[in-house]
Amino acid sequence: MNPNLPLNTALELTSDWPQLLAEAQRLAQSFSLGGHGRRRAGPGDVFWQYRAAQAGDALRAIDWRRSARADEQFVRENEWQAAQAVQFWVDNSAAMQFSSQKESKLHRAAIIALALAILLNQAGERVGTSDGALPPQTGRAQISALAQAMARPASRDFGRPEIDGLMPNSLAVFASDFFGDLAALRETVRRAAGQQVQGVLLMVLDPQELHFPFQGRTLFESMAGSLRHESQKADDLRSSYFEALEERKGQLENLAQSLSWQFFMHSTDQPASGALLDLYQALEGRR
């Protein structure tokens, strides 16, 4: 939105993938899961916990040795151990390279997504990209490859999720400002949901995009330079801009709800840990 911001300034923030990886690792390390993040009952050979027997439990499920030490019956539960595939799309378009401060939307979105991938990888889940370039796998090498993929900016004005490599029954995380073609986004997300993919939309915005501080004569230009609008009284646009922004947020939230996905919004002047917690908890309820 700021026509005076050099494009290469934003590119510099995302070109160094080792730095991006280091920042994401610090964010992940500061995040407390309160125990093993994905532990839950299910098929597996590793003991998890005993719980009190409930109506409907089969007799063969009761641990008679443990029950003999108490006045009630207990069921032995093992830990669910099937690895889930979680696939990411982080919008690397020119619009996401905008920043009114020191950190672009792309840089913040990539850090949050990569930190989430690190936590999921530590929990035994497989992570990758939704475009098929990086199929879901586990391991440190996969995280490094994911960092390189997320740190690669593009020149197009706006992005659209790429789902050619999306696996049926996987989980998806799409991070963008979602300022592009809404009809195309709807079609893409619905296609993903049609493959029994559940997911999360994370809208990442810059503070200027939330507060519209412009006044007087202002030249608005897209980051790629293909769109331009000059206003003599930018403050007269404020009300219409806020209406359009709220409408877009509402459309995204409605899209997510209609497909049993979840929608979150994050501003780059807020702590990244808040968005990371939102995403992790959203995925935890679906894994």
Q: Structural class of the secondary elements?
A: alpha/beta
Strand content: 15-25%
Cα distance, first to last residue? Answer: 38 Å
What summary fits the major beta sheet?
5 strands, parallel
Share of helix, binned: 25-40%
User: Looking at the structure, what is the overall shape?
Assistant: elongated
What's the number of extended β-strand segments? 9
Mean pLDDT score, rounded?
84
Uncertain parts: 1-14, 34-47
Number of distinct helices: 9
Strand order of the largest sheet: 4-3-5-6-9
Provide a concise account of the structure shown.
This protein is an alpha/beta fold and 287 residues long. The chain has helices spanning 7-14, 17-29, 64-67, 105-122, 140-150, 182-194, 207-211, 238-258, 272-284; strands at 47-52, 74-78, 85-90, 126-129, 171-176, 198-205, 218-221, 228-231, 262-267.
Structure notes:
This protein is of the alpha/beta class. It has a 5-stranded parallel beta sheet, sandwiched between helices. Strands 1-2 form a two-stranded antiparallel ribbon. A two-stranded antiparallel sheet has the order 7-8. Helix 4 links the parallel strand 3 and strand 4. Helix 2 crosses helix 4, helix 4 packs antiparallel against helix 5 and helix 4 crosses helix 9. The N terminus is likely disordered.
